[in-house]
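Q: Predict the bound structure with alpha-D-glucopyranose.
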Amino acid sequence: MSVPLNQPACQSALLNALLAGITPNLHQRITTRFEQHFPALQHVLQQLYASQFADSNAFQQWLMSLLSALGNSITMRPANLLELDQQRSRDRQWFTRQNMLGYCCYADRFAGDLKGVQQRIPHLQELGVTYLHLLPFLKARAGENDGGFAIADFDAIDPRLGNMQDLEDLCAALRHAGISLCSDFILNHVADDHPWALAAKNGDASYRDYFYHYPDRTEPDRFEEHLGQVFPLVAPGNFSYVQQLQAWVWTTFYPYQWDLNYRNPAVFADMAAALLRLANRGVEAFRLDSTAFLWKRSGTKCMNQPEAHQILQALRCLVDIAAPGVLLKAEAIVETAELPAYLGTGTEVQEKECHLAYHASLMAAAWAALAEQDSSLVRRVCQATPALPAQASWLTYVRCHDDIGWNVLRPEAALEASGTEEIQHRLSGISRFYGSNDSYARGQSFQASDPAAVHGTVGMASALTGFSSAQTPQEKQLARQRLLLLYGLSFCFGGMPLIYMGDELAQGNDEAYTCVPAQAADSRWLHRPEWNEDLYSQRHSCLGDTGAVFNALCHMLQLRRQLPQLAADAPRRLLQPEQPALLAFIRGTAEQPLMFIANFSDEHISVALSDLLAGSGMKDLTSMVWRNMLDKTITGQAVEVPAYGQLWLIEKTTMQGTTA
Ligand code: GLC
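A: Predicted complex:
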């Protein structure tokens, strides 16, 4: 007869499975973590997987094996990382402070290889980076591999970039410099030459079930009725026929990226173990790729399913037990309303999920505001963004290695439109603005054959903000203001901002990809340039775009570090200026507020602070004397916001404590 899992005898057998092999001096510590996190872990795993087992004994056996693997992972964890875990368990807010700054790049493009990345630590330090997201560096599929997002081996480094020792050395060197290494962890799929896929192709039935496979089109067609398309031009459809399997395999992205079947508990266990092995190499944060797609349910878009969240919650529990110094970051490019759940709802049995989540709507809405010279979409995104749960943070950004996807803004656009056509018209207008050369922007439409279709835009921030097209000093000045405006919003919104490699040097597009066969079909390579040593050498120059952008960004970042109002978890209150081009919010408390005002238009705007604050419930602030931290000017009640300008206003007297 089966024994209910919550019986004390079961719990202690599970704890024993975890502790077996762990040195006794760690038992107390690990037991405490088990007691804190196992109930939530058990709860979600039971919901996800209990029904897959013949009875609760079999499920119990599986849980035992999972915990014993977790115990092994703790046994293998180096002493310095165990110490880091302890430090961070004592200071769980560590990644939400205003000193946190991310930087994102491809290792090869930035510095040749992993050893080269070490050489560039001084550059990261000059910016004040505390978190380095290196785009995929694990061994990827031979040939086309989606910029490394098709993993062939979770335990090997791409041989072009180095080896595991290089990774460990890099993690240690970065840690020594106060920088946490973030690695992609591609959860949703593996490459078609990953050993699991190869085993499936060779007829191994158990590995076949690591994937979704269908003998004919009946089920795929049924699913397709509700599914979207990520790469409609180059990889249409969500299923690919695999001859060796004589089956249609689920491939949300490219045909060579096979979606993993998380209904299979073995997939969950293997993926969790792979993640923890990398954590033991010294990786301190994981960008969990494509998290929205982890669970499939017919009749739905197969995105944001409750089980996808449960998988993330289970992973979080495992990390909290075995490597609590590690951060999980959700990459879910989904509508604003769907985003908060990736940080956990905090209701019911502790539902903690990722520590960080990309705020893709904020990013897209800020670009939309620039194009429209109207802040309505970005205001709506701010309104729809709830306060952060405890110990969580947004990842705010301007550009990344992917396109700017406009579709996430549909719900906000719908609030201002009378139908789908109007939404389509508005978003495609924005897309055209950046992709058609009719404006100052020099981007391209991504994955859209029809210029009126809405999908995404590619291009470096500097090209999209007008540096490449600028002819006159005034145009250059406006381009600079625009780029800084977007970064200013990312610095002030409330989250960990991320600088995308090249933006700090105002680096432009790179057309070279069109001549590289494995890249030519994917225009996202337009904004994945090589590091430019020439631009780097100009970063301190007073002449030219690069120096102006670099110096201004460093200045803003230096100020940011001194302003506790800009910590991720400090409150944010949106204001509603009458002028549509303005975005304004207050960060921090009424006692120590910071007011951020941004002008998304090419016209100078005067605004009376009393009007801005009217209706905000913060009337007390109207008599305050403010100082703009960015240029130290003192403002009266009427403030001037230049074209594409921004103000970081704090009370004049609170300035005294800072050194800027
Ligand atoms: C994520 C990555 C993107 C990749 C996709 C499939 O969205 O950011 O670059 O193409 O996942 O792995």
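A: The domain at 8-89 is CATH 1.10.1740.10 (Rna Polymerase Sigma Factor; Chain: A).
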